[in-house]
């Protein structure tokens, strides 16, 4: 019964997230996560460097990076772990809710399940949707998530990132043909790759078993194909005299 209730809750959260995103009126850029281990390792480093200061992954342990992605304990400790934490700890931000409210006016959300609730395309579009806003406390606003208290931490992510974000128009600017009425600039290749790695990691963090499932999938399909062949041969041998 608990499993059914949890499944229903996740489904409702997904519907709510989709409805909320749709209600904002922003057109989303499509993106499919890349679950290759190298991409996920780079995405984990990007999350630690750009997101972990404010956002936690309270359902994800540092140990997963060793067990699933082949990183060594030393790599995780040197590249990702902030403060005095253990390899078996969850990825928790050092910023408290009180500090977040004092500095940004709202507590930073936990991102453990953001990919399941919002979807990778929503996260990808949001991270590329920052635009200048002189009326905002941070100097930034977001086309996909308007009035977000989050500053644009990706502004200096790559050499071409500042030029891109400075050229993103606010919604309703110009004669755009999109649902949010505004032409979006082309995303530079370097920035696009970095953001895709980060979003792929968040998708993996929402469901760490996806790596094991994808690696096991070809073996399962191979077994089923072999089983089907053997079943056919047995059937043909069994019914040979009948026909």
Write out the strand line-up for the largest beta sheet, numbering strands in chain order. Answer: 1-2
CATH superfamily of the largest domain: Cytochrome c-like domain
Q: What distance lies between the first and last C-alpha atoms, to the nearest angstrom? A: 50 Å
The total strand number stands at: 4
Estimated radius of gyration: 22 Å
The CATH class of the largest domain turns out to be Mainly Alpha
In words, what does this structure look like?
There is one protein chain. With 243 residues, the protein is mainly alpha-helical. The chain folds into two domains: 2-207, Orthogonal Bundle (Cytochrome Bc1 Complex, Chain D, domain 2), CATH 1.10.760; 218-243. It contains ten helices and four strands, in the order ααβααβαααββααα. It has helices spanning 2-23, 37-50, 63-67, 73-79, 97-104, 114-118, 120-127, 161-167, 189-206, 209-238; strands spanning 57-61, 90-91, 130-132, 140-142. It has a two-stranded antiparallel ribbon with strand order 1-2. Strands 3-4 form a two-stranded antiparallel sheet. A hairpin with a 7-residue loop joins β3 (130-132) and β4. α2 (37-50) packs across α9 and α7 (120-127) runs antiparallel to α9. The termini are far apart.
């Amino acid at each position: 019964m608990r499993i059914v209730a949890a499944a229903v809750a996740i489904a409702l959260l997904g519907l709510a997230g989709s409805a909320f995103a749709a209600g904002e009126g922003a057109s989303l850029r499509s993106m499919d996560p890349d679950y290759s281990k190298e991409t996920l390792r780079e995405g984990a480093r990007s999350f630690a460097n750009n997101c972990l200061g404010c956002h936690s992954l309270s359902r994800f342990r540092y140990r997963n990076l060793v067990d699933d992605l082949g990183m060594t304990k030393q790599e995780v400790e040197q590249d990702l772990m902030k403060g005095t934490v253990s390899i078996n700890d969850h990825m928790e931000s050092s910023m408290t809710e009180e500090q977040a409210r004092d500095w940004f006016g709202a507590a930073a959300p936990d991102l453990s399940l953001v990919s399941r609730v919002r979807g990778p395309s929503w996260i990808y579009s949001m991270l590329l949707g920052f635009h200048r806003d002189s009326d905002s406390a941070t100097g930034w606003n977001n086309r996909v998530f308007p009035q977000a208290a989050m500053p644009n931490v990706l502004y200096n992510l790559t050499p071409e990132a500042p030029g891109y974000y400075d050229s993103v128009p606010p919604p309703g600017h110009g004669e755009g043909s999109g649902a949010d009425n505004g032409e979006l600039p082309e995303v530079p290749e370097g920035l696009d790759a970095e953001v895709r790695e980060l979003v792929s990691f968040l998708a993996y963090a929402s469901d760490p078993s996806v790596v094991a499932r994808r690696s096991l999938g070809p073996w399962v399909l191979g077994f089923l194909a072999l089983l089907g062949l053997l079943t056919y041969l047995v059937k043909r041998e069994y019914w040979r005299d009948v026909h």
